[in-house]
Write a structure and sequence with these properties.
With 254 residues, the chain is of the alpha/beta class. Helix content is 41%, strand content 15%. The chain has an 8-stranded parallel beta barrel with strand order 1-2-3-4-5-6-7-8, surrounded by 7 helices. Strand 5, helix 7 and strand 6 form a beta-alpha-beta unit. Helix 2 packs across helix 4, helix 4 runs parallel beside helix 5 and helix 5 packs across helix 6. It starts with 7 loop residues before the first helix and ends with a helix. The structure holds 3-methyl-2-oxobutanoic acid. 3-methyl-2-oxobutanoic acid binds next to loops.
Length: 254
């Protein structure tokens, strides 16, 4: 018998029960299917797709067409996990555009959408949630803004202004009704504070152990993108090394 489909309410309930939420990215059918079979409850077709699948230097090159294509593939592989997709760079510059593109991702199979930003995108978030589409926020280091940061992925929340901005962004997303919020490269103390103060589930990435859940870019975890691995990732498998060995064995045996 198959287990029931995970819902946003299930993830909030996991927060209340203090049950850690495992979340991973998936960009294709076989990966989504494997992660679903492993019981990972939350999947994301992240726009990290741009780097780890499409070979771009950062996420700003990813288009709606890319996201729709990969969301369709990953959604086909998902039975139980809640799977969502990122709105890519400049796909949510206005509330109308955000809603239009969120609907396209839902049509491709996303059960929630995620976008980067806090109070500054509140009208867009309200438009999406108002139309009945579950929403996940993303605050802290915003990869779509990496070029404005001089190309560096910097930790957020270290000074008073950064701390206050994170709390204000979290309050805006909570008020709008985000069911979860990704905290990327937020200081562990501020991530803990946000986790304790707000009802949404916090999903950390490089933000310490006290978030309600943790998300990683799957190729970082399993080593299928060996050319760069963030410092905070503890790699569980070096798949690239295994692939290289296997191909070498096959080639030498020809
Ligand atoms: O694009 C992505 O993969 C993400 C996760 C790292 C949270 O936004």
């Amino acid at each position: 018998m198959s287990s029931p489909k995970i819902t946003p309410a299930d993830l909030r309930a996991m927060k209340v029960r203090r049950e850690k939420i495992a979340a991973l990215t998936a960009y294709d059918y076989p990966t989504a299917k494997l992660l679903d079979e492993c019981g990972v409850p939350l999947l994301l077709v992240g726009d990290s797709l741009g780097m780890v699948v499409l070979g771009y230097p950062n996420t700003t090159h990813v288009t709606m067409a890319d996201m729709e294509h990969h969301t369709r593939a990953a959604a086909r592989g998902t039975t139980r996990a809640l799977i969502g997709a990122d709105l890519p760079f400049h796909a949510y510059d206005s509330p109308d555009q955000a809603l239009d593109n969120a609907r396209k991702l839902v049509a491709a199979g996303a059960q929630y959408v995620k976008a980067e930003g806090g109070r500054e995108i509140l009208p867009q978030v309200r438009a999406i949630i108002g139309a009945g589409i579950p929403f996940v926020g993303h605050i802290g280091m915003l990869p779509q803004h990496v070029l404005e940061e001089g190309g560096k992925y910097r930790i957020k929340g270290r000074d008073d202004a950064g701390h206050a901005k994170l709390l204000d962004d979290a309050a805006a997303l909570a008020e709008a009704g985000a069911f979860a919020v990704v905290l990327e490269l937020v200081t562990p103390a501020v991530a803990k504070e946000i986790t304790e103060r707000f009802p949404f589930a916090t999903i950390g990435i490089g933000s310490g152990p006290d978030c309600d859940g943790q998300i990683l870019v799957t190729p970082d975890l399993i080593g299928t993108y060996p050319w760069f691995t963030p410092k905070f990732v503890k790699q569980e498998l070096n798949a690239a090394a295994q692939i290289r060995e296997a191909i070498g064995r096959w080639k030498n045996a020809l």
